[in-house]
């Protein structure tokens, strides 16, 4: 979870137009936003459970949380500030996911990333040991 594209983008746009937007959306590029805020994750988890007719999902992955850092880099946000916000966002998401695991709605959770282990000039690899 995390990507906001297609039908989700239409829904998010409508919510924004009525001042009910999810917090902390990253406007990564036209047609592709990103959000890992617990409110958005809750919405997506409940939608998935209902759509699949399940009470529990086996795995819930945060997809490419580093999009936030890439976006901050494009907007010339200082690396230290962006990295601090990045880890706070992931920590908040993990707290939410751990609660959902305890409630039995998720068996396992983690991060899925195309650049997870890459070290880019201004984007450090994600260090899950911080949690």
What does this structure look like?
- There is one protein chain.
- The chain is built from 4 helices and 5 strands.
- By secondary structure, the protein is an alpha+beta fold.
- It has one domain (3-130).
- The strands form 2 sheets. The chain has a 3-stranded antiparallel sheet with strand order 1-3-2. Strands 4-5 form a two-stranded parallel sheet.
- The longest helix is centred in the last third of the chain and has 24 residues, at 79-102.
- The model has no long low-confidence stretch (mean pLDDT 85).
Order of helices and strands: EHEEHEHHE
Secondary structure: number of strands: 5
How many structural units, i.e. domains? 1
Low-confidence segments: none
* Shape, per Cα inertia axes: globular
Strand order of the largest sheet: 1-3-2
Domain NADP-dependent oxidoreductase: 40-119
Pfam families: Aldo_ket_red (PF00248)
Protein name: Oxidoreductase, aldo/keto reductase domain protein
Write a brief structural summary.
By secondary structure, the chain is α+β, with helices and mostly antiparallel strands. 45% of the residues lie in helices and 18% in strands.
